[in-house]
Amino acid sequence: MTEEPQRESGASTLRDDLLRGYADGRFVETVYACSLAARDERDVVALEVAALQNEGLVDVVGEFENLKSKSANGGRFFSMRRVFEKALPHINANLPAVMRCVLRLYRDAGNDMAAGMIFDSYIGFCTKNASRPRDALAAIKANPVEFADLLTASLVAGSLIDRPMYLAEAMRLCGHDNIELRRRAVFAIGRIDWPTGEMASDAAFEALEASAECETDDHILGSVVKSAFALSQKDKTRELRTVPLIALALSKGAEVSLHAASELFGFFTKELSPALLDTLLEALKRVKPGNKGTLDNIDPGIEHLLKSQEPERGIAFLEELMLTHAGALSLGVFDSVLHHVAQTPPLFGRLATRWFLKGDRVLCDGLVEVSHKLYGANVALPVDPTELVPKDRVHLIFLARKIVGYFVTSPLLAASLIVSLMRETDDKGVLEALKQTLLDPLLLNYPSLAESYLANEARKGTGAVEVALDEAIKSLDAYFATLHSVGVIRELHPSEEQREAHMRQFGRQVADSFREAEKKSVFYGLVSKSVLLYGRKSVHRVYGPGGESRRMETALGNYSAKFDLPRMDNIDPVSLDYMIRMYRAERFRSK
Amino acid sequence: MKLIIKEYLASLKERGELDAILPDLLSQLGLNVFSRPARGTRQNGVDVGAVGSLDGQPEKVYLFTIKPGDLTRASWNADGPQAVRPSLDEIQDAYIPNRLPSEHRDKDIVICVCCGGDIQEQVREQWEGYVSQRAAGKLSFQEWNGDRLAELIQSSFLREDLLPANSRSMLRKSLALLDEPEASHRQFVRLIASLSAIEGKSDADRLTALRQISLCLWILFAWARDNGNLESAYLSGEVALLHGWSIARMYPERSSKTERAVHAALVSVLSTYQLIATEYMTKNILPHVEKQHGLSSAVRASCGLDVNLKLFDVLGRMGTAGLWSYWSALQCDDEQAELRQRFLDVMRSYTMSIRQMIESNPALLLPIKDDQAIDISIALLLWSFCEDEEARGFIEWWLPEMLGRASFAYASHGLYPCTLDRYSDLLEHPKKGDEEYRRNVTQGSLLYPTISLYAALYDIDELFQAVSDLKKEHFQHCTFQFWFPDETSEVHIYKDSDGHGAVPTHVGVERTKGELIKEVLDECEQSAHFKKLSAVEQGMWPIVIVACRHYRLPVPLHLLESILKAKATPPPEQDGDGVPPARPSV
């Protein structure tokens, strides 16, 4: 429920609302409600909040320190915190109180990617008064257990006032006894802002090199990677010094370091030099398949390489990554890659040809995952002839069987790939074998393919392929003519009882899968759900900032999806299953 | 009820249908039937001859000429053996002077034209003119049309005191539900069960019950045929035969009039059952066995399970039909060599059709239920009676393919054979990746030991070893078993009235082929109850097959005994104990 601020007719003001909320012990909730109502003028609310603190009317810092955690507040936590973030740089308040409040709001955000955004506001707060970063630093050093998380932000804030001093402080802290301070200090070196045109100091590099050399802590090594890259970005001439530094840190580091590398690869792919790219790719092969965050970073990096002038580099890395972690990693984790391959038919054709010929299960499964992105795989694609090496009988038939084995539920895709294969051979025997593969299992399982696709292909010319396609269609017709000659044998039909039992079971399956889909749906997490027992449209009211309501109608619509099931799923499911598994399992003998 | 019977009578269209029911009807009316219909030409126009008193009148001779359906202008006086008028002339000119038994020559003679329907108006005048010209002295004519027959049936077979209201109701329901064969069959089973409850009844009551079973089955069959769905009739035919046998088995001799009448009534039930089975096969199955996926598609399945269940069911029926043909061949003596060969040809056509059906419908390469081993066993038994390389070749192909698929399905949590029986449970099978479930639904098996036994019998070493390996690798938890009748089987096997039989567990598929065969032979030796089953003792062993198929009991291995002995030792001479001999020349 959204709590609306109470309003009195005409005379009510924002300040009144906030003060009333404060008096009622609902200050933060009132701030949130006012910010919602203010829509595009939410900064006004933030400034008013700051003003209330500065005028001593409300202990804003104390109120926000008591903000209920993310878990208790749900999605509103960040909206409420956002008001404080905007207000914080304008607030005059006791530093320790602010530090405690900032830390509380940071930690309560958990692992959310937006958790650290409050530090930018804290930096804004600190830079308003030179004493603040200095005092903050002192407090942190005095009580690192409580305040270590504020070290980086405090150093960055200080560097905006006196960069040499705070850089020197950061480098000193890189050798501090307390590991938590060392971690943040190394990280801070990369965050310190360098004016345009000014070179990063050798001292900074030396500090990082020393850390890379001495430290074994994965977090510190990860910070070395990030900071070294940050320094090199400010000064490209330091490339020769940066690459070995990052390589050293990565060679010693583990998951955190690799995550840092994945951030560079994923978010700064364009800025990476070839040498640094090599270094990162080599290290990233070691990524653990369970580290979803790291894989999520790698995903856009690979996508970028695939889109670049040298997609082979991306393909090679992707292949190596998949093969290194076969059984634990699937292509499905790389959503952007999947999407890009699916949207780029030549690339999909190339990968399908190459990976099916390789026959590695993990790669072939990846192709299936791509096919799922192809609007139910209801598209026709050709193989890439340049990948057909060698182009002999064994390889062509092997490839056709792989296509069938993996794309059996995407009949048009499978048929189109096989037809394109047929166009790549002059060997009558191979053509006949491919025709048979097309007929059984594809056409026998999906007879509508004959009309919807193959008939058109057969009309494209008068060559051997078209003749073969025509023969396949005729064989299919003959098969169905034989089936029709059987007629209706009522004695063989399942009983009504059995049909009903099957319908019930099917209904249960559909309902279960619908519930599963609902659970995973992002959409359902964002909206409330209403169940209409009657009628054909829903009516609801939306309230504007002034409390005025607007009536809205939403008509009910039908949504349906169509998919084909292979005919043999009923007639002979075991043979179909067996054939698919055999086709998938076939491999070339290693030489 | 009369309408139902009349409808049934009108639908009896083939020779051998109306004349099959008439003798029973006449017997039930108290007449003594001295001439029954035989295959081939009529006996000078007479289909059925009987003597006795009807409706309190003096004893007369009744000579029937039968015309299925309505009597039309064409059937009244057309060319051909089925025309009525020439038959009537023949009776007067040839039968009465020459063939009428001498003891009846002094009696009044009534020539009856019997038709399931009516004498149509267009021939009514000719019929009446004929009667007025020829009726004289001791010779008279009567019209027995569908109306009269229906009335007689109702007043004799289905009298209120003999067929109570609830039984009539069950028959009506069974007919009304023919479109839902299982429901129709359930009603019919209730009907047959009530008719065959003959504890403490007299011989006459038992005879009447048997005739009522026969008549009810006929009525059901006629209606089912008209309805275009023989399923209920097929299943009901099996039940009628088994319950009929449960009555007839009490009369093993044929010396008394009652015993002969009981035997005749049983033959009538058996004939009807075989007629249904033959029609089922020739109309629905045999023309389509060669068509790729033909029968599978004809199932019009909601899912693969439907095809699997139905096709294995058909397999068992085909095997049973083939075994009946084999049995018929065994009944022929040397003078009937031609007839025997015809039966053997039919048997051969069934074996070939089974092979073609399996080749065209791959669903038959892997059962989903372990008890489908019963249907497989029936088919294998039939094939075993063919002593040729083709049988060996077929078995060498089919069983390894089946085992390969079963092993693959089991290993991949696919559609492996399980012990589940309920359709709704089978729909949920298999539960992917659920190891405990997989063990639970494979705790016992008839299928694998059966495959192993045939592998031993046909020296298919790889297959025998494969079953052994499968047992060691995956099925240590599973009880491999066979089934043998015990001392209670005779009481229960025909009516499925209770559990019976004994199961040797831990069948030695992991030992040698010879040891497995010896183990089975030893158990056959120990378990003599099979040979004491009345159906076996009286030479009607296919009835046991019907019971096994219908009530889902494993086929007794005694039926293979002579073949197994031949495998284990040089073939012994036939001991004439009712068990089929080993592989007659086919």
List the helices and strands and how they pair.
The complex is a heterodimer of chains A (591) and B (586).
Chain A: H1 14-23, H2 27-38, H3 42-54, H4 60-65, H5 70-73, H6 76-87, H7 95-108, H8 117-127, H9 131-142, H10 144-147, H11 151-161, H12 163-173, H13 179-191, H14 202-214, H15 218-234, H16 239-252, H17 255-267, H18 274-284, H19 292-307, H20 311-324, H21 335-343, H22 345-358, H23 361-372, H24 393-407, H25 411-422, H26 428-445, H27 448-458, H28 464-486, H29 496-520, H30 522-526, E1 537-543, E2 549-555, H31 568-571, H32 573-585
Antiparallel strand pairs in A: 1-2
Helix pairs in contact in A: 1-2, 2-3, 2-6, 3-6, 6-8, 7-8, 8-11, 9-11, 11-12, 11-13, 12-13, 13-15, 14-15, 14-16, 15-16, 15-17, 16-18, 17-18, 17-19, 19-20, 19-21, 21-23, 22-23, 22-24, 24-25, 24-26, 24-32, 25-26, 25-27, 26-28, 27-28
Chain B: H1 2-11, H2 18-28, E1 32-35, E2 48-52, E3 60-67, H3 73-77, H4 84-99, E4 108-115, H5 121-134, E5 139-144, H6 146-156, H7 165-176, H8 181-195, H9 203-227, H10 231-248, H11 257-285, H12 294-298, H13 304-331, H14 337-360, H15 373-384, H16 389-411, H17 423-428, H18 435-440, E6 444-445, H19 447-457, H20 461-473, E7 479-480, H21 489-492, H22 513-526, H23 534-537, H24 542-551, H25 561-568
Parallel strand pairs in B: 3-4, 4-5, 6-7
Antiparallel strand pairs in B: 1-2, 2-3
